[in-house]
Amino acid sequence: MPPLTLECPVHVLRSARLPALLLLLAAIAGLVVAATPAGPGVIAARDAHLVLAGIDLSVGHWITDGLLALFFFVVAVELRHELTVGSLRSPRAVLVPAIAALGGVVVPIALYLVIANGTPSASGWPIPTATDIAFALGVLAVVGRGLPSGVRVFLLALAILDDIVGIVLIAVVFTADIDFVALAAALALTVAFGALSLLLRGRARVPVAVLMVWVAIAVWVLVHESGVHATIAGVLLGLAIAPGAGARARHALEPWVNVIVLPLFAFASALMPIPQVSPAAFAPAFWGTVLALPVGKFVGVIAFGSLAMALFSRGSRPLAFGDLAAAGALSGIGFTVSLLMSELAFVGAADLRDQAILGVLGGSAISLLAAVVLVSLRARRYRRVREAAA
């Protein structure tokens, strides 16, 4: 009998399945708690202000602006890997998923604006553009066994490119007055952070790592003070860190991000009472989001992806229509970044923010169910083809 080890629990904490499950459970828990008698007290605790390092934020904003920067750091490290040595390193390999991802951004925006144009809800147009990479990978891990590597690479590329779009929109659209001095100082310290990461070896490893943590905190503070959303600090640091150091940092942070950061963010975002009104009374912020995520993403990815393959695949069709449909359904799972965009788009408009969040949860749930069905059907088909050929 082999000896028992502690490797399995750690492996589970880093698995692709766990974040998706915990995100879903945390969001459900937030909605349930908000509906109980304890809900108002928990919401008040989330909205209570906490001053750290001279920065006054609510507990909820410490989660969305502070802790979530760790998630964006991990994502940025993965983005850099995929863009340099991974599946997105070749322009030809990235062309079709890039055009499909473009469709998954343009069509949801158009559908949202058709519904919300001319209303206060119109400022939420970026919300349905994002894909939750944690959920997408979780669905692939749970029901995608048997998919060919080409299909997996396409789905991964689509999710990653959507993440890039979400990061750019957060940095550009949701930035008002910029303090360029603070931003320049943040960029200078980011360069210093990257240079320090090259020194993480030998006896100097521990003091250099401690110094890097302090530099990273300073970058976060400066980005926050510059007027750019503070989570962009995580993106800057993740892109700046040396590849080897970044891989080690991602390996160390991933369990904490999966088990604490993302579920806590999902719980805090979903912690709101569901409006006791008829569906007709919901604002366009709800209807635009709940329709643009599952419908707009699905249609956009299929239409633009089919066009890209017709134009650039040189007589071969790398993906079947069913594969594109599965990708379109997966891309409609907005969740993490879409929830964050809901917070940013409707600052000072709590009612619209809450309805947009409900739209994100509803639209993502519809996309999740569709993705589970379509991905599992495609995976089953490929397994049968492989078995018949064996």
TrEMBL record:
Name of a matching Pfam family: Na_H_antiport_1
Compartment annotation: Cell inner membrane; Cell membrane
UniProtKB keywords: Antiport, Cell membrane, Ion transport, Membrane, Sodium, Sodium transport, Transmembrane, Transmembrane helix, Transport
Taxonomic superkingdom: Bacteria
Transmembrane residue ranges: 58-81, 93-115, 127-147, 154-174, 180-199, 206-223, 229-249, 256-274, 286-312, 324-350, 356-377
GO molecular function: sodium:proton antiporter activity
Substrates-to-products reaction catalysed: Na(+)(in) + 2 H(+)(out) = Na(+)(out) + 2 H(+)(in)
GO CC annotations on file: plasma membrane
GO biological process, one term: regulation of pH
Membrane-protein topology: Multi-pass membrane protein
Family, similarity comment: Belongs to the NhaA Na(+)/H(+) (TC 2.A.33) antiporter family.
Function in brief: Na(+)/H(+) antiporter that extrudes sodium in exchange for external protons.
The protein, known as: Na(+)/H(+) antiporter NhaA
Naturally occurring in which organism (per UniProt): Microbacterium ginsengisoli
